[in-house]
Automatic annotation (TrEMBL):
UniProt superkingdom: Eukaryota
Organism per entry: Dendrothele bispora (strain CBS 962.96)
Name of the protein in question: Fruit-body specific gene A
Length: 112
């Protein structure tokens, strides 16, 4: 008999499960904890692991909103959120007269 087809093992979890990817809005919710600027999504996950009560991260580019910084905004929340909370699409006036907008917004829930 033929052996069963080989399936690669699932990739190991890094402790987070994506709830949305590549949206144009950032999460707005009452359980917001803090935020920071990071180089990578992994840096944001590490930040969450070091903040008590963090259960969810939202990383995004706040275009025009950080003085031209290429860094990701990393927002931390106390509970998990889906795409329905990604309602902050920017539109705030900046000092140079431009409006900010959100790109590459990803949400990750910390595995319990």
């Amino acid at each position: 008999p033929k052996p069963p087809p080989h399936h690669p093992p699932p990739p190991p979890s890094d402790g987070f499960t994506p709830t949305f990817l590549n949206l144009t809005g950032a999460t707005q919710a009452n359980d917001f904890l803090t935020f920071g600027l990071v180089d990578t999504v992994d840096d944001c996950k590490t930040m969450c692991l070091n903040v008590e009560g963090c259960a969810f991260i939202n990383t995004y580019h706040d275009v025009n909103g950080k003085g031209g910084s290429p860094l990701l905004t990393c927002s931390l929340f106390g509970s998990c959120h889906g795409p329905d909370t990604a309602t902050n699409v920017g539109g705030q006036s900046q000092p140079d007269g431009s409006l900010d907008f959100i790109t590459n917004s990803d949400g990750y829930c910390k595995d319990q």
